[in-house]
Amino acid sequence: MSVHDLLTIGAGLAAVIIMILLARYGTRFTGLLHKHGQQQTLLSLRASLPIDARRRLSLIDCDGRRLLLLTGGTTDVMLGWLPAEERPGRGSPP
């Protein structure tokens, strides 16, 4: 390999790295990528409790509502939606 070949390979590698970094900053600028510290999750696992060796009871937050799931075993079962959590300052009496 000659010096010219090595310089060509190095320039190509540098160009690819620069394009990756530009794509990363471009997605962050357009809002496609969440910045650190921002949490916009609509679905999250609130708690999980093992019932036995195969089954697990899970409490899931889904867009401000809570869902109770029983997973494992032969089938997964949705036990139902739980009442919304009371938050202070939302018109509820103290």
| Integer average pLDDT | 83
Q: Roughly what percent helix? A: 25-40%
Q: What spatial order of strands do you see in the largest sheet?
A: 1-2-3-4
The gyration radius over C-alpha positions equals 25 Å
Distance between the termini: 79 Å
- How many individual domains? 2
How much strand?
25-35%
Count of DSSP H/I helices: 1
Structural class: alpha+beta
Largest sheet: 4 strands, antiparallel
Element string (H = helix, E = strand): HEEEE
Indicate the overall shape: elongated
**Number of E-state strands:** 4
Name some characteristics of this structure.
94 residues; elongated; 2 domains; 4 strands; 1 helix; alpha+beta
List the helices and strands and how they pair.
Elements lengths: L2 H28 L12 E8 L5 E7 L2 E7 L5 E6 L12
Please give a structural write-up:
The chain has 1 helix and 4 strands, in the order αββββ. With 94 residues, the protein is an alpha+beta fold. It has 2 domains: 36 residues; 40 residues. A 4-stranded antiparallel sheet has the order 1-2-3-4, with no helix packed on it. The radius of gyration is 25 Å and the shape is elongated.
Short synopsis of the structure:
With 94 residues, the chain is of the alpha+beta class. 30% of the residues lie in helices and 30% in strands.
